Structures are given as C-alpha cells and as structure tokens.
Amino acid sequence: MKIWRNLFLFTGACVLSSYCASGLYQLHNNNREKKISHFTMIPEPMARAMTLEFPGITSDYLMLKTLTYMGERIMKDEELTPDEWQMIYQTLVQISNLDPRFIDPYIIAQMSLPWDAGMVEETNILLEKAAKILTNDYRPYFFLWYNHFKFLDNPEKAAYYLEKAAAIPGAPPYFSTLAARLNLYAGKTYAGVVFLQEMIKETNDPALLKSLRRRLQALQKIGFLEQKIQKYRKRYQVFPKELQELVDKGLITKIPPDPYGGKFYIMENGRVYTSSNLVLQKKGKK
Amino acid sequence: MNSILPIAVITFKEGLRRRVLYGVMVASLLLILFAVLISGLFMRDILKVMVDICLSSISLGGLLVPFFLAINLLAGDIENRTIYTLLARNISRSSYILGKFLGLAMLTGIIIIILMIATLVAIYCATLIYPAHNFLHFTLSPLFISTLMAFLGVLVLNSTVLLWCSVTTSSFLATLLTLSTYIIGHSVEDVVRFMNLKNTGVEISPMIQATAKAVLYIFPNLAAFDLKQQAAYSLPFVSQEITLLGLYGLSYISIMLFLAIFFFKRRDLP
To answer: Shortest CA distance to B46 belongs to which of B115, B117, B137, B149?
Structure first.
C-alpha cells in the first residue's frame, strides 16, 4: 500500500511539475519583456567593472542574445519597432564596450541598422570606433564607404573611406577601382549588390542569411530592370513611362516580382523603385 | 623548513580526496562540447568565442581552489582542531602556512593543466568542424601565456585566503573577505581610471579619489592578470607587461605570506 501511495504522490508531483513548467514557458512567451538584457543600460566603466575578469564571455553572451532576438523576428517575418531597434543598438554598443575587437557586433549593426531602422549615423559611430581599433581590418572602412555612398549621398566622403579600405592588406583588389566605376546615381544599385555579396560572405547565421539574400535578390532585380531601361532609352531616346512597356517591346518577358511583396515601378529619371521600400510587407497587404 | 613539502603533499592529497579532479574532468568534457557547439552560432569570430569560453572556464576552475578548497582546508583545520596534530609534531607555524600555500598551488596547477588540455582538444575539434579561415591567425603562445598569468592571479588570491584565514576565526568570514578581495581586485583599476577621467561630469571628492588609489595599492590588482582578450585575438604580448606582472604577482604573494605568518604566529588557537 505504502509503495502505491508513494508512486501515486511521485507521479502526481511529476504531472504537476510538467504542467507548471509548460504553463510558465507559455506565460513567459506571451508576456515576454522586450529586453535583451538589463545589462545594456549600465554605463560603460561600471559594466566593465561588473564583469570582473569575464568581459569577453559577457560580450559573447549579449551577442548571442541579440542574434537570437533578431533571428526569431526575422524568421517569423516580423518587423521590429523603433524602440526595439534602439535597444539592439544599445546592446551592440555595450558589446563593443566590453570587447572592442569583437567584429560581430559591427557586422550585425551594418547588416540591419541603416537598412531596417534608418540608424545610419548611429551605425557610423560604431564603425568609426571599430576602424580605430581594428586597424588591420578593411571591413569597418568598407561599411563606412557604403553608408556614405548609399544612405548619406556623400560621394566625396564615401570615396575617402573606400580608399582607406583599399589600402588595408587583405582588402579585395577591386576596391581600388570601385570608386572610379561608381557615380552616385547610376552606381547605387551596383554598390548595393557588391556590398551585400561581401556581407553574405560574412555570415553563417541562417536567419540573417535569409534576410540578406532577399535584399540581394531585390537589388539584382532592380539592377536588371534599370539596365533594360537604359537599353530602351538608347533605342527610343526616351525613358519608358511604365515597366510594362519593357515587356511590350520585348526587352523582358515579364515584370519580376519584388521579394519584399511590393511592386516595382519606374521613376522619371529612369530609376526603379519598389512600393515595399525594401521592407517586408505584412501578409495580405499589397 | 623541511616540513614544508610534506605539508604541501598532505594538502594536495586532501584536496584530491575531495573528488576535485573527477569534477574538473567532467567539467572539461562539458567545456569541450559547449565551446565547440556554441561558437558555431556566431558569425565571424568563432575562434574568439571559443577561446573566451575556454579561458573563462580555466579561470573559473582555478577559482574553485581559493573559494571552496583553500578555505575548507585551512579554516577547517582550525575549526576541526586537526591543526594541533600537525603543530604538535614540531612543525613551525611558518612551515605550516608555506606548506599549505605550496599544496594549494599544486592543486590549482593540476586543475588548470586539465582544463588547458580540454581547451586544446576543443580548439582541435573546432578546426575539424568549422572553415579553416577562422583559425588562420591562431597561435598557441598567447593562450599559454594568458593561462600562466591566470594561474599566477589565482595564486595571488590563494595567498590572500591564507592571510584571511590567519586573522579570522570562522571560515564564513574568510570566504566573505576572499570574495570581497576578488571583486575589489577585479574592479578597482576600472574605478580609479573612471575617477581620473576629467570629463565625466561628476564631481568626485579628492578624499574618495585618494581612498580608491590607496585601495589599488593595498588590494591585489587581479584584473591585470586577466589577459584573455589578448589571447582570444592572438595578439602579441608586451614582454615588459609580462615581466612586470610576474614580479608583481611574486612580490604580492610574498607580502601576503609574510603577513599571514606574522598573524598566525601571534594567534591563540582555540
């Protein structure tokens, strides 16, 4: 009898514990506080002092939390709010405070902040810090070039950074001629393709790769359409008014779909834009 | 003085009897698995993350000695009154302290060696799994130098444990003092540096500044022995820094042992 009673109590405890564990998980999942870590709010000298002899592993932990946080949202095709982007930026700054030589926070900042959050200036501050510390790495200057070229429309400063990147041993040889090949308006799409191809080489995170590949695909399509528009212009001395005209004249078979769920359209200057603005459209919304 | 080595051996064996090495070996296996798997989740600095995890584990393993073993072995001797058996055998109190320190150093050394082997195995496994470009700049010497300095840092903390055990009567108090020494030792340099910044916008009284500076000289600067970040990026070490660290460590240990012997000799054992 005693054995049965004990077995009954033990089974009951197991069931109750499993029920509570699952309930707590669900509860935390639903009401999860939108924070990566409270540690990111602590001022730099305090943070360094608090990590004792473990700032390196603390920065790894924060990086992993950031990647998981962002990855989860990207995989679900969810958009992050400005507050969330601000929090991600703060976390990346804290990681770079704890371990300034760690390249991952700079790369993830460049991959996401200027594109999805419009935080170009903030990203540049981080990259300037990286460039000062990682003197043998061409990437911070390469990223600064791209941000000045694409987002800040400042070709002089962009050229300055590209020159700096090209001078660092290990930089791809085509950097030295890249500046000459690009002019601000015609070159933006091509620069974007070059940039994204370099970024894809930098990551093995599946969620980020998915996002980068989608962006690359969109830019390649825009590049392809702009090339055909130039061809049209050469032939007819005028820009087409709509992309459909390219199909009608047999230059393309159909208008390619935008991977972000928007629609490509042509501007007066012959450049191609998309109604999605390279931001993933919510399902059902066109 | 001839009794130092036997006491060291007894301390070492007593430490081993507490199944320390089994625990460390299990921890090493977990370390290899954890380090290899988790580093793959990062984008570029796979080697850096691996070395961070491995060297942090080495430091933690080393810290087991001052926090758990040393205090138990020393204060336990006094609390359980086993010290009388030793001192009754014509062993001087100074030999007892020095012997204990040597025994603890041997224990720390063996733990760090086991974890270091685990680190090398973990890095070897990672080279088989992850692309070779992640390991292009990897060199062994920064890893060894960083571990050696971590070892010296733990020895410094061991010597402070001996001092605290000599001046206090309870193991709880000794643990508390050792923990305070550890936290102060790792943060005081940053605090002093922060106070010296002129543009912080915060008014700090000269009295506090002077106290912080005094603390920097009185407590061991344990943060200086932390060279994990240099090792993680295989950066070359400045030989002057290593020499200074070595000399600082040895001189600080001598001072702590000297003070521990001084107080222990004058202490009335219960």
So the answer is: B137
pLDDT at A184 over 50: no
> According to the model, what pLDDT value does residue A227 have?
87
For residues A35 and A170, is the Cβ–Cβ distance under 8 A?
no
Mean predicted lDDT score pLDDT of chain B = 87
Confidence of residue A89 (pLDDT cuts 50, 70, 90): very high
pLDDT digits (tens, 9 = 90+) for B214-254: 888 899 999 899 999 888 888 888 888 899 999 999 999 99
Interface test with A, best of B43, B133, B149, B188 (most A CBs within 10 A): B43
Contact A48/B190, CB-based, under 8 Å? yes
Residue of B nearest to A63 (CA): B42
Q: Which residues in chain B touch residue A60, judged by CB atoms under 8 angstroms apart? A: 42, 49, 52-53
Name which of A50, A55, A204 is nearest B43 (Cβ-Cβ): A204
Of A266, A197, A207, A185, nearest to A66 by C-alpha is: A207
Q: Which of B38, B52, B223 sits opposite A56 (nearest CB)?
A: B52
Chain B residues in contact with A92 by the CB 8 A cut-off are none
B35 touches chain A (CB under 8 A): no
Confidence of residue A223 (pLDDT cuts 50, 70, 90): confident
Residue B155 has pLDDT above 60, yes or no: yes
Verify whether the Cβ–Cβ distance B191 to A49 is below 8 Å.
yes
Q: Which CATH architecture has domain A50-215?
A: Alpha Horseshoe (1.25)
Average pLDDT over residues A98-113: 92
Cα separation, B265 vs A159, whole angstroms: 73
Inter-residue contact A141 to A159 (CB < 8 Å): no
A4: left (phi over 0), alpha (psi -120 to 50) or beta: alpha
Measure in Å the smallest separation between the Cα of A102 and chain B Cα atoms.
7
- Delimit the domains of chain B by residue range: 4-265
pLDDT computed for residue A58 by the predictor = 92
Contacts of B184 in chain A (CB under 8 A): none
Chain B nearest-CA distance from A197, in A, is 15
pLDDT value, residue A285: 41
B48 contacts chain A (CB < 8 A): yes
Residue A127 CA to residue A96 CA, distance in Å, equals: 10
| Short-list B257, B261, B268, CA closest to B84 | B268
Please report, for chain A, the start and end positions of each structural domain, with discontinuous segments joined by +: 50-215, 226-274
Q: Is B228–A103 a contact, with Cβ atoms under 8 angstroms apart?
A: no
Among A151, A216, A218, A149, smallest CA distance to A184 is for A149
Has residue A284 got a pLDDT over 70?
Answer: no
Give Cα A265 distance to the centre of its chain.
24
Asked whether residue A36 carries a pLDDT value surpassing 80, the answer given is no
**Inter-chain contact B182–A52, Cβ cutoff 8 Å?**
yes
Inter-chain residue contact A57 with B52, CB threshold 8 Å:
yes
State the Cα–Cα distance between residues A218 and A230, nearest whole angstrom.
19
